Amino acid sequence: MKRHEALVQLSHEHHHGLVWAKRFYDLPDSAPLADQQELLEEFLPIWRDEINPHFRNEEEILLPLFDVDADPDVECIRQMLQQHIHIRRDVLLLEFEPNIEVIHRLGNALKEHIRLEERDVFPLVEEKASQETLDAIQSQIEK
Ligand SMILES: [Fe+2]
Ligand SMILES: [Fe+2]
Question: Is 124 within 8 Å of 75 (Cβ atoms)?
C-alpha cells in the first residue's frame, strides 16, 4: 500500500524492524548463550540509535499531532502503546541477560507491532489527519 509521504520514513524503518524480528524468532531454541549474546550485541546499538528513536518519533510526534485532528482513544492506538511498553520491557530484560524465550517473544512482538501499525494505525492517521497535520508530522519527525 502506498504510504502518505509523511509516514514514508517510519514505514521504511518498519522494513528494517521486520528483518530484526525475523532474526529473533528464527533463532533456534537450542542456540548457545554465545550466539544469543552475539545477536544482542549487534542489536542493542541498533535499538538505541534507530528503533528507540523510531518509537519516540511515534510517541512524541506522530500521536500527539494525530490528537490535534482525531481522538487517539481507539483500540489500535491503545494496543500500539501497550506494545511499545512490552517491547521496551523485553529489551531491558535482554540488556540485563540473554534469554531465548525473551528473544523469541521480542521477535514476535516486533512483527505483530509493525503489522498493527501498517494495517491499522497508519491508515487511520492517513484517513483522519488533515493535510496540515500530515505536513507537520513530516517536518517534525527526526531523521
Ligand atoms: Fe511503534
Ligand atoms: Fe513503528
Answer: no
